[in-house]
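Query structure, 319 tokens:
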């Protein structure tokens, strides 16, 4: 078969011939891959920086995909924890990490939206139980996952959703997909902190795709502006595109009811994540969530790695 193959963490994958894997376990089946998303999670695994990376090379990147079995069944699946990912013509699927998709499903839509949508969907349904009418701030709402998080928070019952990000064009688009208010994170620290404090001081939940310096400024900004500091604020850490670490003063935890948690592989079991996939897929297939896949042939994976995308767009590779 042909696949995208990473042989050095410093270089993009290349389209090469690779041995076809074989299904050997009781729950395994070999599928023809139809569509697989190029997600930030895939990029970080391909360059060795993801927290689950064990340094194994060569590897086939790809976290998830839509594939078809020999019997014609359409599946969405999450790759097994090996170096053989989904950016290939064929892949081995563990049926315990897969769900069946209905006839007529667009594989590209599912491949584009499931991974970025999964982050907030699982966080708001498995890490917490979002109360109807709650207010939610999405830090990093101008990214693909953040834009879906705005939509998903509203779909799951949030009464008010605020999107915060840097890109002005993407911020403008957020109101069209459900944001009640937007906050620009561009400017000096005090200006950004004041904006966040005014717009989101009393939110119930923060979905954080940024971390780093942005979060380090945002936490005290929200908590010091809060009308009632004893009101619980749940901060769900999902991504770290603005930095891996923050400095958190101990007094902040004593002076307010701040609950910090993460959501990702490890904080939620694989079985727990898979259990949340069918209802999310149902919303994608129904068109409830806005999806914009950019289709690129797998043979052009090296070029795709550096292809720019429009707001809300996700690259999907098609073997």
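Result returned for the query:
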């Amino acid at each position: 078969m042909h696949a995208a193959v990473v042989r050095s963490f410093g270089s993009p994958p290349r389209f090469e011939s690779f041995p076809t894997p074989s299904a050997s376990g009781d729950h395994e089946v070999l599928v023809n891959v139809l569509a697989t998303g190029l997600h930030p999670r895939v990029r970080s695994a391909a360059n060795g920086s993801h927290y689950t990376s064990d340094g194994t090379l060569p590897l086939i990147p790809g976290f998830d995909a839509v594939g078809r079995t020999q019997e014609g069944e359409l599946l969405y699946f999450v790759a097994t924890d090996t170096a053989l990912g989904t950016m290939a013509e064929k892949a081995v699927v563990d049926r315990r990490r897969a769900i069946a998709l209905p006839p007529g499903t667009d594989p590209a839509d599912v491949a584009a939206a499931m991974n970025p949508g999964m982050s907030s969907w699982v966080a708001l349904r498995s890490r917490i139980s979002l109360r109807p009418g709650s207010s939610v701030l999405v830090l990093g709402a101008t990214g693909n996952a953040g834009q879906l998080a705005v939509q998903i928070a509203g779909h799951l019952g949030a009464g008010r959703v605020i999107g915060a990000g840097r890109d002005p064009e993407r911020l403008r688009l957020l109101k069209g997909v459900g944001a009640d208010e937007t906050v620009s994170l561009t400017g000096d620290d005090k200006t950004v902190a004041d904006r966040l404090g005014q717009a989101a001081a009393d939110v119930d939940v923060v979905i954080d795709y940024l971390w780093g310096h942005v979060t380090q400024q945002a936490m005290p900004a929200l908590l010091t502006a809060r009308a009632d500091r004893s009101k619980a604020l749940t901060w769900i850490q999902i991504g770290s595109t603005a930095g891996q670490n923050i400095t958190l003063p101990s007094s902040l935890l004593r002076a307010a009811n701040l609950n910090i948690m993460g959501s990702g592989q490890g904080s939620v079991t694989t079985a727990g994540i898979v259990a949340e996939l069918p209802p999310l897929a149902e919303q994608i297939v129904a068109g409830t969530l806005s999806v914009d896949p950019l289709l690129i042939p797998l043979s052009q994976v090296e070029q795709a790695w550096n292809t720019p995308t429009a707001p809300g767009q996700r690259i999907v590779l098609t073997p």
